[in-house]
Amino acid sequence: MSMITLAPTQLRRLASDFRYHASVFRRIASALHRERSGVFLNTSDPGFNPARFDARLASISATLRRLAVDVTLDANLAAQTAAAGLQADAGGLLIGTIPSPVPSWTFNNWSLRLLRLGLRGIFGPSDDGLPAYPDPPPAPDGGDGSDPHGSRGRNVFERVADEGRRGILSGTADGADQIGLDNAARHMGHYLGNSGATLDVDPAAITRDVPQFEAEVQEAVAFDLKGQIDRHIADVYDGGSMTFVTTTGWQRFYATKDVNQDWFYALGGFSYAVGAEVTVEPGPDGEPVVSVRHQTHVFDRYNWDEGKQVTIGPVTVTDEQVGHLHEVGIAQEFEVRGTSDVETFEYV
Questions:
Q1: Exposed, middle or buried, 262 (CB in 10 Å: 0-12/13-18/19+)?
Q2: How far apart, in whole angstroms, are the C-alpha atoms of residue 274 and residue 227?
Q3: 315 neighbors 168 (Cβ within 8 angstroms)
Q4: Please, how many CA atoms are within 13 Å of residue 139, restricted to the half-sphere of its CB?
Q5: Positive or negative, the Cα torsion across 14, 297, 201, 147?
Q6: How far is CA 209 from CA 215, 257, 340, in A?
Q7: 61, 264, 266, 343: which sits with the fewest CB atoms below 10 Å from its CB?
Q8: pLDDT tens readout for residues 31-83
């Protein structure tokens, strides 16, 4: 059975994402329960059976509530495992045996589906052999993000003002979407959605829109990644076949407004790294033939720093104003992650 390793930090993120999806299931279930009268359908249709429709919605609602319970249990188990400072193997249908005091456990089917479909950017690629998504770069000592989520109290007048500010930002996101700033709108909408869940991005979309980033990644592959590979081969190669993995360190890139407004507002400065699986075979003349399969990873913390501001159309907002919504608990900062498709090359 194919296995991937989940470290404690990854398990904590898994718990967070499962709790978010559980909350989505509960909200859908509640909405279905409220709409069981069928008011949103054409009930004048002679083929419409209100009793059957009501029973079907009740069944769907109950199923979603059960899924919410199951996924919440998985979230709690993942958090418990992470709190114990342990590791688990996840693959197929099983989570490997966890040392005491945490028992062995398995994902329920829906959590497995979420893991397989929605969390590639957190736990690395599903393609066997390639290294997992690297640990994120450390956060700066200061000036990176707002105070903790929901840490600031407020009175009724401040609540009204905050909701007004939130409405302005929501309208700004809608306006950005209308003028083609799709990613900027998506990221702001996710922030205002207040889930705090990790948002996945496609590195290929960034390289398509920002040629300078594509050039930097190609340079990282040609010099940093290949340099690491060559040094490792020089140190350990004995003339036979071997396979190993390696990942470059995180490097910074800044998508400036003059190059691409969309990614400037969506990410601004972000980090990238390249991970690879390397296979070495002896060539006809005894020299090693090196085959490389590699992927690009990107990472960013979508947060708001003091002393900065952005202008989208006619609206200018400071980072303090936007970050304030995180501090009072009606928006939430989050991490952005992404992993590209596999590319290959070979050299002697």
A1: buried
A2: 12
A3: yes
A4: 12
A5: positive
A6: 12, 12, 15
A7: 343
A8: 666 554 444 444 455 555 666 666 666 666 666 666 666 666 666 666 666 56
Can you tell me the distance from the alpha carbon of 308 to that of 202, in angstroms, rounded to the nearest whole number? 26
d(CA 237, CA 137): 31
In sequence order, what DSSP letters do the residues of 214-280 get, joined into one string? HHHHHHIIIIIIHHHHHHHHHHH--SS-EEEEEEPPPEEEE--TTT-HHHHHHTSEEEEEEEEEEEE
Count each helix (H run) and each strand (E run) in the chain, helices first: 11, 12
The tokens for 171 are: 């309208």
Ramachandran angles phi, psi of 5, nearest 5°: -95, 135
SS3 category, 10: helix
| Alpha-carbon span 24 to 11, nearest angstrom | 20
pTM: 0.63
Look at residue 344 and tell me whether its pLDDT is greater than 80. Answer: yes
> What's the chain's Rg over C-alpha atoms?
24
Cis amide leading into 101 (omega within 30): yes
CA separation for the pair 107, 113 (Å, rounded):
10
The helix or strand, by DSSP H or E, that contains position 192, with its residue range, turns out to be helix 182-193
Helices 182-193 and 319-327: angle between axes, nearest 10 degrees: 30
At 91-146, the pLDDT tens digits run 333 333 333 333 333 444 445 444 443 443 333 334 457 888 889 998 876 555 56
What pairing do the DSSP bridges indicate for beta strands 269-282 and 334-339? unpaired
State both tokens at 15. Answer: 């718990």
User: CA triplet 273, 276, 278: central angle to 5 degrees?
Assistant: 155
Placement of tokens 């979230």 in the chain: 75
Tokens 């709108």 — which residue?
185
The one-letter code for the residue type at 211 is P
Give, for 317, the enclosing helix (H) or strand (E): strand 315-318
User: What ranges in 97-138 are assigned the alpha helix state H?
Assistant: 109-118, 120-123
